[in-house]
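Final report, closing paragraph on structural work. Over the funding period we assembled a curated collection of sequence-structure pairs, and we close with a single example.
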Amino acid sequence: MVLTSATEAVNSGLQYLPAPNHQLTSPNQFLLPLTATVNAQDHLEVGGCDVSDLVQRFGSPLYVLDEETLRSACRQYRQSFERYYPGDSLVIYASKAWNCLAVCAIVASEGLGIDVVSGGELYTALQAGVPAEKTYLHGNNKSVEELQFAVESGCTIVVDNWYELETLTQITANLPAPVRIMLRLTPGIECHTHEYIRTGHLDSKFGFDPDQLEQVFAFVAKQPTLECIGLHAHIGSQIFELQPHEDLAGVMVGWLSQAAEYGLPVQELDIGGGLGIRYTEADDPPSIEEWVRIVCEGVVQACEQQQVPLPRLIAEPGRSLIGSACITAYTVGSQKVIPNLRTYVTVDGGMSDNPRPITYQSVYRAVLASQMSAEMTETVTIAGKHCESGDIIIKDAQLPPTKPGDTVVVLATGAYNYSMASNYNRLARPAAVLVQAGEANIILQRESYRDLVRQDRLPERLVEKG
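Its predicted structure, as stored:
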């Protein structure tokens, strides 16, 4: 018998799991996917699948993506904009969080567009069936080849700097119809997040500076092959504050008024994304609906004050769509006990499948998938297997006693884990499965040793003769 909810195990510290009415909740506010339960064997289940069984079947490390949680987040964003914004709106998934065919296809089937930041992400989105008119290419150093590909595909290009503007005027010089572009601008808004993922302040590599506005608008207005349909800004990622987003709305509507003075057909405002998720019990992010309401009210109020018609409002959430929809399952291996100091529990992955702790000092939560109700009596450091002292997934994690072969699950790993994965130490990248209603399907095949050398080339002179 499956428990109606893992919250029935509250006394064992599982109060962070979804409640029975999870359809009414915001996925970004939970540590585990919305379908998470504990079965009669005291095993964690996601999407109706026993996670320990998934590891036996598909191996580990293993990304487990819950389709229902991802779809729920998509719908909450789309429906919230329909509820709070009286004008036209479009939610586009910031696919740098996790770009693969299956994720792009799911998001597109929920009516969302796709934000891509490279030729590879653009190619993947198009291959997944995402319409070009709902695809937006970002990036601060797009190559000539990427810009050419974007022009040919028919997607909207978010222009970041003068180099791109000038390159696009050359690429499009002989085209019969203009190419749709947006202009990325730096709003100069600070927010509390890690400095590496803060993008809206003036000291940022992204976007045109505010003092360049008039010059940029005047230049674009003279280009017959560039149709400037919108303006874009983004203030950062993993943000819990709401005020910066409201401030951004006022700044961007002001830009909209200036663009109109130059005759630019600006009809869209892309206010970026940035809503954070819960990685530990201490995190308290706003709900998707609350974030959308603040953004919409800010834009509407600014348009009324500045007497500007409502633009098409675009948002580009990434982490808050997919972060909480995925977990990563590992198998425990060696352990090292340093008396009166620390106990290391080593797993079969680490910084090559989740580089965020070593890169951003990110903090995660973990559970023992086969003993979900066991008392958490041990404080351990979950270490990766890479040849780096800094390859630590979680320092001072609370877990029940573990032994080699156990399945440890790290929560909320959907965003920037697979997308930033590497082959460091020549480890093969993990598989990913999509789970729904008790069914598990491979969406990313586990790499093999042969895959690791597939792109290698050995000069003839180094090949052993005879």
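The first strand starts at residue 37 and ends at 38. Residues 138-317 form a domain with the TIM Barrel fold (CATH 3.20.20.10). We thank the funder for supporting this effort.
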